[in-house]
What does this fold into?
Amino acid sequence: MPDKRERHILITGFGGQGIVMAGDILGKAATLYDHKHATMTQNYGPEARGGACTSQVIISGEEILFPCVEEPEILVCMSQEAYTKNVKSLRPEGTLIWDTDLVHTRKTDMRYKTFHIPSTRFAEQLGTKMMANIVMLGFLSAVEPLVHSEALKKAIMDSVPGSTKDNNLHAFNKGREYGTSIIKGLVKAEQAKHQD
Amino acid sequence: MNGDEACCEGALAVGCRFFAGYPITPATEVAEAMSRRLPQLGGIYIQMEDEIASMAAILGASWGGVKSMTSTSGPGFSLMMENIGLGICTETPCVVCNVQRAGPSTGLPTAAGQGDMMQARWGSHGHYEIIALSPSSPQEMFDMTIRAFNLSEYYRLPVLVMADEVVGHMNERVIIPREEDIEIINRRKPTVSREDYLPYEADADGIAPMANCGDGYRIHVTGLTHDERGYPAMNAKAHEQMVTRLVGKIRNNRDKIISTKNFYLDDAEVVVVSYGISARSSMKAVRDARNEGIKAGLIKLETVWPFPEELIRSLAPQVKALIMVEINGGQMVLELERSARGACPVSLVGNYGGAILHPNLILGAISKAVKGKT
Amino acid sequence: MTTSKPVKNVPPHPMDSLLRTERIPHIWCPGCGIGTVFSAVIAAIKNTGWDPNSIAMVSGIGCTGRMAGYIKLDSFHTTHGRALPFATGLKLARPQTKVIVVSGDGDLFAIGGNHFIHAARRNMDLTVICVNNLNYGMTGGQQAPSTPLGAKTTTSVSGSPEEPFNFSYLASACGATYVARWTAMQVRSLRSSISEALEKRGFSFVEVITPCPSSFGRRNRMGSALEMLKFYHGRSVIRGDIDPKDASMDIDKEIVVGKFVDIERSTFLDHYEKFNRPQMPQWRSMHPDNQKGR
It folds into this structure.
């Protein structure tokens, strides 16, 4: 992948899920530890909590001028509303990622590369659903390596409160392991599709 | 970090130690960052009852000798206008960061706007000159907040940082220089005795040395028209003298104040002029135009006020068209048109707020302009 | 520019050291009560023995607001109603300075009412002197938040339809640590109350009922300045140990005067230091000359 190309990622969900934080961590990993350029902008409704929320991340080897993500190549959906609203914007060859338990996708979405993870359930199992965003980042790092996973880990450590660092690291690893196992299985699945 | 946080860090780096504010989207993060950071540096954060009080408090703190600032957005900016005028009349250094949203009224609190540009220029009553900067990235929020303080301390007036929602909430890498690499300008202090000191007697460059409260000069400061002593002088002659100096200290030093970044102007046939977040869309459009073989250029206004009138006046006869790009219905474009003095067509790419301008829209305007259509 | 030259053979007035004598004569009307309050303030300041360079006066707009222009201290004549927030910023930037706010009833309680209740709530360490002349004097006598129900002003020619505030009660309810009220005739008590207020830590408040013979007095047929002074004095009842809510302020019946509140309460800065001390290694290195680090 040429380094100069802009990678456009849209992370979506509702306020309070750590959507903006996830975008922030991704951008931090890219800029501070992978030494690329990144920009993160956010959209939210009049209320800062509870409403629809998106985080737009662009990662590039060059200076980024226009900071809006209009047609993401990677779309992460953490809520049904976010999915319904944003799925149309995903590029035809794009990657669609969602929380298994929170989003029901339509069949037509099979034209995308698709991955899903019960990130909220995993996070709850690890102690608190507040870490669903970190599980999702771990998953993302396995299925779509935008930045080095070590960079992501460092960015997470920078961003979460001291007492929760270990837990968040577990959350990240949980997501990453799940993603890695899916990727291994996916190769078969993709092959199966081509045989049809 | 995001632009609002970068604004806070820039202010702290240049020595700001007092912040008074009132929460308002999308500027709240400046206040939040200040409330965390100021106590660590021995400074004061106070949340006032409204923006009128916030503005009054930073003027008071500045006269107490402490560099001070506030941040706000549309509705709060309107409330601050009264005391911005007091700051101009009494020549009080301080910084106001306006993270613009879309108005009028409550408008779109969480969406971008650049509709306060004329309010920044003329929002307080009476005639005056102002200095306003416009950052287009978190890095510039940091750098320009520093410059805003330096300008305010030097020229003794409230300096405005006219940011917008996208820049305020955008996260990007911000490089904070080493302490010794940051230029810090502090207000000029009087060198004469109390008996000989005239608080509003200017030096050759139009700037009067400033005695702080408690320095032993027993100054009198009033928003009434005043003479060199600072005493009320209720007549047209005194008023003429005072305003002439307030206006002159900015106008006569505009070469030192005005700052633009110019791109591809040498052979440009169409020049885009823009500022803040819109300058980024403009840069993208200008590069795209160049890729298409169109000779486009860009003037990015770092200081929006004073406006670079001379630059535009000398450029206008050499180009086919000038295009202003801004998120409003046409504010700085009026200034561009005035400065071009009819030497070339001037047009606007803008919207009334709520979304940032797409580079393709600007590219379309450039393509049209180069063919002589506007 | 003109500066008045000292006149020979005239001994200096004892208050000259705190007066901008070159600005005298002042703009106040003959018989106005502000002069009395002004001299009481100056006497109280002198009485403290403090270095005048460590005292500042902040005022708003209006007749009383002009006091800041005549006193030889660091003095700030700000915008209408905004004396308190300006003083708040000044005090927090220079906690070592004693900041006195002087202003009228309209400035402090109408346009500045919100600032007043919040400055008192925060217990900002300020001394506030309110000259209450029951109307807007500077602009020719309009209805104010102090104007008695039914009183005539230029904007209530048939009588004010509004109930007035009781400022001393309001101040105490908002958390002031010191509250006293006097009429302008009770000079000695007023002076000693201002002295106590100046010495008080926290938000101290002194209200003075003063005649405005040119506007309020004339429209309400109250006679000369001296008659007004005597009238208010005559209505006054000294009640030291009274609940501020019972400290009636009714010129038709009874003006309760005296010291109503004198309590101790932590100030804004006390609390700010307490809550932030663990992370304040360089506490109060606010001024550019003594800053370290960032």
Summary: Chain C has a mean pLDDT of 93. The two ends of chain C are 45 Å apart (CA to CA).
